[in-house]
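Data availability (excerpt). The following record was deposited with the supplementary files.
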Amino acid sequence: MNLIIQGMEVENRDLRELAKLAGANQIDRITGQAFRLKNASRREYVTEYCAEAELDFAFVDPMVSLGEFGLVAMDMDSTLLAIESIDEIADMQGIKAQVAEITQRTMRGEIVFAESLRQRTALLQGLDQDALQYVYDHRVRLSPGAEKMLQRMKSAGLKTMVISGGFTFFTDRIKSRLGLDYAAANTLDIQDGKLTGKVLGEIIGAHGKAAVLNKVREELGLKREQVIAIGDGANDLKMMEAAGISVAYHAKPVVQAKANYAINYVGLDGIVNLFE
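Predicted structure:
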């Protein structure tokens, strides 16, 4: 296997020690933040060492390249975006802390997502719809490395998709801004220019995300093994299970425990370094 090491600061002594621990016989530089340790044969102690050194690591089949995949599906909030959009909307209502607490409990898997979304959306009742545009214009930030990751994946021929438990107001704009191929999310009910506190239609939660992913995958004629899914919260787990490769990005422990790979320190562009 190749052992991919990434971090904000990767020291030579760490690379040498990790090569020794893993039994690797060659160290190649991928980027200034990423290195490939070739022919790694041992995993013992690598996890502990990287946690102490604040380094991301991944044992990757050297025969797998990015071009073998056909679709990447991404969660939006705290994954493709560096914010939780519903928390920022709640800030316009003066209740960010209250809503953010529910969001965090939901992402840890303590609350069923659909019920959580209903609770949080109900608290937004009466908010002027112009607040949504304000949040998009002034609060939305892409996660580090997002555009670079997408550019390289598109160049390799992958279709790109954002699947969110958030709202179409944001996914539609992000899809257009980043040139994504697909977008799916929940729709806020707006009457007379104000949020009613309700969500229209069936809520896209954990199972909904997986269903959307499988529908698009089948339309593209792809196998499960040709899909990469990236997420951070418990409601992403079903979507990630529906993919051949799952990546936990700065994720909750419950997600990291079940993902193929975890990225905790570098940006989203660190994902492409696993396969190039």
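Summary of structural features: The domain at 68-274 is CATH 3.40.50.1000 (Rossmann fold).
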